[in-house]
UniProtKB/TrEMBL annotation:
Organism: Geotalea uraniireducens (strain Rf4)
UniProt-recorded name of the protein: Gas vesicle protein
Keyword Acyltransferase in annotation: no
Membrane-crossing segments per the record: 12-30
Keyword Transmembrane helix: yes
Pfam families per UniProt: YtxH
Keywords attached to this entry: Membrane, Transmembrane, Transmembrane helix
Length: 115
């Protein structure tokens, strides 16, 4: 188990050392000055910021449109539901009236039979 730990530590140290050596080599062989590189990094960061803002704005607009569409559909469904409820109430009243008429006919018939 000690060998595994030692191998892991050695591997990690070699990785860090390779990173440091690579960074040093990059600085030695850089084709432009540090000032120019910093300016390029700032320019790149500003471009990335503007692109990110554009993406956020587009996403916000799409979400707003989706929310508006869902709201419109919900309102439409509620309107249809109220129309359907009104029609159902009318049909129920008609059925009750028919039932009352039949009940009245049966009552009068029964009254004739009884006397």
């Amino acid at each position: 188990m000690d060998d595994r730990n030692n191998n892991a530590v050695v591997g990690a140290l070699m990785l860090v050392a390779g990173g440091i050596i690579g960074a040093g080599a990059a600085l030695l062989f850089a084709p432009q000055s540090g000032k120019r590189t910093r300016r390029d990094i700032v320019r790149y960061a500003k471009k990335a910021k503007h692109k990110a803002e554009g993406v956020v704005d587009d996403f916000s607009a799409q979400v707003s449109d989706m929310v508006e569409t869902v709201g419109d559909k919900a309102e439409e469904i509620l309107d249809k539901g109220s129309d359907m409820a009104y029609e159902a109430k009318k049909d129920l009243l008609k059925a009750i009236e028919k039932g009352q008429d039949r009940l009245e006919k049966q009552r009068s018939r029964l009254a004739k039979l009884i006397g």
